[in-house]
């Protein structure tokens, strides 16, 4: 039986220090330490993820670790989740659906999941992946799936001079957001070049059928917008008043990001409209070419029918056919056929049927 005078398990006695924040046990593939201010980022031992500092020391040195995959980040989030937080099954939903989401899993822990996109020139396709970050006191865990190469861009941005007043966590989050949006911008540029190439094919005289290419590009644009738009819908959650200051992002930076995403979306929408116009132009061209072909067929048919008619008349085997006994009847018939064909050809050529 528990002594009433003794504190319950898990509850610190009066005057005792608050318990240390829960820290996940993870296996990292790479790690760095990010110093306060503009001192950049330094490599660290992936096997040691303990960082000094109080849980309320927003500007203390932060350890940033890259995990093997998104499941490792979700497992870490499940470890720090409080009893009233989301379950492992709730967190795993983000892994199955590439949607942007910002979720507070504990008092000082924030889970960020967002889709990524990249464009390959070889097959002119947009590919999507996912990026996840678990932000906590003195520790940031990240992972990505796909070839967007978000971590390499993040390293460059974190190492570059930035806001000296921002916390290390803010710098890492800002670098991740900028890397993801920057990748989306590169996707838009790649799609723009592909649309321009398709436009040249549409108006090319070689009559290459561009319908399949137009459809493929419209599908890729839809894929890019599907990966991009959730970002603007969920990232403002980082400005939630309940989110600790050292876990959020700079408001002005986020506003610029939202503006950039909206600009990219407008450009993608313009590309999509241009492809629709190209399809209409192509169908009009096909109709015009079909009419031209029909006119040519009709003109040549008329030219071929004329000598057939003349030959049919001359082939009538009646008794009183004066040309049958005329010495110049056969040459005259041939000349009449040739002259009529030449005359018809010149007429059809003049009116544009040939």
Automatic annotation (TrEMBL):
Q: Can you state which reaction this protein catalyses?
A: Mg(2+)(in) = Mg(2+)(out)
Name the Gene3D superfamilies on file. Answer: Magnesium transport protein CorA, transmembrane region (1.20.58.340)
Region described as Disordered: spans on this chain:
1-24, 35-54
**Record membrane topology:** Multi-pass membrane protein
Its annotated compartments are: Cell membrane
Function noted in UniProt: Mediates influx of magnesium ions. Alternates between open and closed states. Activated by low cytoplasmic Mg(2+) levels. Inactive when cytoplasmic Mg(2+) levels are high.
Listed name of the protein:
Magnesium transporter
């Amino acid at each position: 039986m528990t002594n009433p005078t003794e504190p319950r398990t898990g509850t610190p006695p009066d005057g005792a220090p608050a318990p240390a924040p829960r820290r996940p046990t993870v296996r990292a593939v790479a790690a760095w330490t990010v110093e306060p201010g503009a001192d950049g980022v330094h490599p660290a031992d992936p096997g040691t993820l303990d960082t000094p500092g109080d849980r309320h020391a927003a500007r203390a040195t932060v350890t940033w670790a890259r995990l093997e995959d998104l499941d490792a980040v979700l497992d870490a989030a499940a470890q720090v989740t409080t009893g009233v937080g989301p379950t492992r099954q709730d967190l795993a939903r983000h892994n199955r659906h590439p949607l942007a989401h910002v979720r507070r899993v504990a008092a000082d822990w924030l889970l960020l999941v967002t889709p990524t996109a990249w464009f390959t020139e070889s097959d002119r396709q947009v590919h999507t992946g996912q990026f996840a970050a678990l932000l906590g006191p003195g520790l940031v865990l990240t992972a990505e799936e796909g070839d967007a190469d978000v971590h390499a861009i993040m390293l460059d941005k974190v190492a570059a001079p930035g806001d000296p007043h921002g916390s290390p966590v803010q710098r890492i989050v800002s670098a991740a957001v900028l890397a993801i949006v920057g990748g989306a911008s590169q996707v838009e540029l790649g799609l723009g070049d592909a649309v321009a190439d398709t436009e040249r094919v549409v108006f090319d005289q070689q009559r290459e059928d561009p319908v399949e290419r137009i459809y493929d590009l419209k599908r890729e644009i839809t894929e890019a917008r599907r990966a991009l738009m959730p970002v603007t819908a969920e990232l403002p959650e980082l400005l939630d008043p309940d989110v600790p200051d050292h876990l959020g992002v700079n408001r002005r930076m986020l506003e610029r990001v939202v503006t950039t995403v909206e600009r990219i979306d407008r450009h993608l929408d313009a590309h999509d409209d241009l492809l629709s116009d190209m399809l209409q132009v192509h169908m009009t061209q096909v109709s015009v070419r079909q009419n031209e072909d029909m006119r040519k067929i009709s003109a040549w048919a008329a030219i071929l029918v004329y000598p057939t008619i003349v030959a049919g008349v001359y082939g009538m085997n009646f008794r009183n056919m004066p040309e049958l006994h005329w010495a110049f009847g056969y040459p005259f018939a041939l000349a009449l056929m040739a002259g009529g064909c030449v005359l018809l050809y010149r007429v059809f050529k003049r009116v544009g049927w040939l």
